[in-house]
Amino acid sequence: MNGRILIVDDERSMCELLETALRLRDFESRWYTSADEALLTLDDGNFDAVLTDLKMPGTTGLQLCEKIVANRPDIPVVVMTAFGSLETAVSAIRVGAFDFVTKPIEMDLLAIVLQRAVTHRRLQDQVKLLSERVEQNGRFGEMIGDSPAMQDLYDQLTRVADSESSILITGESGTGKELVARSLHRRSRRAKGPFVPVNCAAIPETLLESELFGHAKGAFTDARSERKGLFQQAEHGTLFLDEIGEMPQSMQAKLLRALEENKLRPVGGDKEVEFDVRVLSATNRDLETAIEDGRFREDLYFRLNVIQLELPPLRARGTDVLLIAQHYVTNLAARAGKAITGVSEKAAEKLLAYSWPGNVRELRNVIERAVALTRYEQLAVEDLPEKVRNYRSDQVVVGGHDPAELLPMEEVERRYIQHVLNTVGGNKTTASRILGLDRKTLYRKLSSDGAADK
């Protein structure tokens, strides 16, 4: 069925004609010759659209339209008018009617207009459902998603929020590691204290120690006064060390000593200062590999990684993609002053099929671009970047029915190892766990077939 239509016209013969014509075009309908009767049944009939004449005795079609728009704005109204009364139809559009058709009515054209109205209604319902899912079930702090992977994460966050232990948050770039850190802070007993984030990769090595520990007056040329570092600024709160894997080795030893003793020495200072801070850290690097390569201290890793939270990539979160997309559409459209309700069905299929190597950060970028470009109420496929529109998932080809397509076992293994690596963002520790190989065996296979260089 294409939709359920409420027909209102004071001429019984016209109502019967419309009912028959719409039934032939797979619409279900009910008709009334009085606008007041139609209003009484509107809430009970679960209609997708209203089709009403304008010229009627008593309550007119224009008045009916005004009442429906005021009380049931979710139901689109299509008005019928004689060709010489277009001004009245325009008045109906101004009060909120969805569209109009002129008499004598071309039934195929009417069916097209009503199908557009029904589609509009159903899209509004979908947007409402998505918004309700986001607000009721799909949120944890500022994080959005109700996939099994995110439900597991929410459960872990709830259990460790009040812990004073150091937590290492891992995951690919753009998965929302700082949002997790902020959620942990807000749910902890330190919530009334400050949350102080620092990106270890964004601060030059020569300034990082001073930024974290502070400095005494005269410690270096520009140190004209004493300055408290981020550890002291986060007192009784949470210090979030983002991109911890990028911290220079010379600084790693100093950080370890401070965490072990809960004391720090400002640059150029002669006294140690105690601090009371919970430390959260995050990385998109494989720190275990960095340890083996001599780029990260093992003792600091164990100190930071008392509890580890691993964030799932967006491609592993199913329809969370649409929940997050709807959230961004709502906010970005409001900011741009555009009446955009959501994402079209075809565009949604493209968003779900794409692999999102940049994760949530990339999704926001795509939605912001689409909101800026679209000319419609729904984001269309043409509003998406070419790489999303034309994406084709990589497949691991094991073999086929054609003997010429069959592969040696060594090649099948090589392709599968590379596929797993690509899927987990190059994290060899995670890949080895999935493959059931110890790390040394994985490294040997990578070096023997050249996959490590890809």
Describe this structure in words.
- With 454 residues, the protein is α/β, with parallel strands linked by helices.
- It folds into four domains: 3-134, Rossmann fold; 140-218 and 228-310, Rossmann fold (3-Layer(aba) Sandwich), CATH 3.40.50.300; 315-389, Helicase, Ruva Protein, domain 3; 403-453, Arc Repressor Mutant, subunit A (Orthogonal Bundle), CATH 1.10.10.60.
- It has helices spanning 12-24, 35-42, 61-71, 86-95, 107-137, 148-160, 177-186, 205-213, 230-233, 249-261, 287-292, 298-304, 320-336, 345-353, 359-373, 386-389, 409-423, 428-435, 439-449; strands at residues 3-8, 27-32, 49-53, 77-82, 99-103, 139-140, 143-144, 167-170, 195-199, 214-215, 227-228, 238-242, 263-264, 273-274, 278-283, 307-310, 342-343, 378-379.
- The protein has a five-stranded parallel β-sheet, with helices on both faces.
- Helix 3 (61-71) runs parallel beside helix 4, helix 5 (107-137) packs across helix 13 (320-336) and helix 13 (320-336) packs across helix 15 (359-373).
- Mean pLDDT is 86; it is low at 450-454.
